Amino acid sequence: MGDRYPGSDREIGDRLEPPEPVDWGKPKMFKIGPDLREFYTVGQLAAALHRSPVTIRKWERLGYIPIASFRTPGQVRQKARRLYSREQLEIIVSIAADEGLMDGKIDELGILHPRRGINETKFTARVAEALKRLAQ
Fold first, then answer.
1. Tens digits of per-residue pLDDT, 77-115?
2. pLDDT given at position 9
3. In whole angstroms, what is the distance from residue 98 CA to residue 93 CA?
4. Quick one: pLDDT at residue 127?
5. What are the DSSP calls for 43-74, one per residue?
6. How far apart are the C-alpha atoms of 41 and 89, rounded to whole Å?
7. How many other CB atoms are found less than 10 A from the CB of residue 5?
8. Is 32 in a helix, a strand, or coil?
9. SS3 content of the chain, % helix, strand, coil (to 5)
10. Bridging pattern class, strands 35-41 and 82-85
11. What is the largest CA-CA distance in the chain?
């Protein structure tokens, strides 16, 4: 019998299946120019990242992720909801998974490594660069 993770029955090096994809929920649809586009709330981004909406707002405030570039229309700024486009959400979630910020990272051998802290990663720089490219 091998070594076990502290507080767990699972042996170190056990292989786990990747987590199931998260249902992001129904997007909000807004017309931008001639196109109808999908947008997601901070709560939906939080669910996709397996975090709370409070954490996402804190990450924005601390500059870990760019402030949502869209807000719900027709409301005062204090009551406007943050909105992320589908492309933004997919980029943020993809980089977070790659950096091990969600449920940990599964390496090429199928070994799950514990979830990392955001300061231990290149998440912020990668998201900023990817969203900058998206905006161009």
1. 566 778 898 889 999 988 988 887 876 566 667 666 666
2. 59
3. 9
4. 92
5. HHHHHHHTS-HHHHHHHHHHTSSPPPSEE-TT
6. 10
7. 13
8. strand
9. 35, 20, 45
10. antiparallel
11. 63
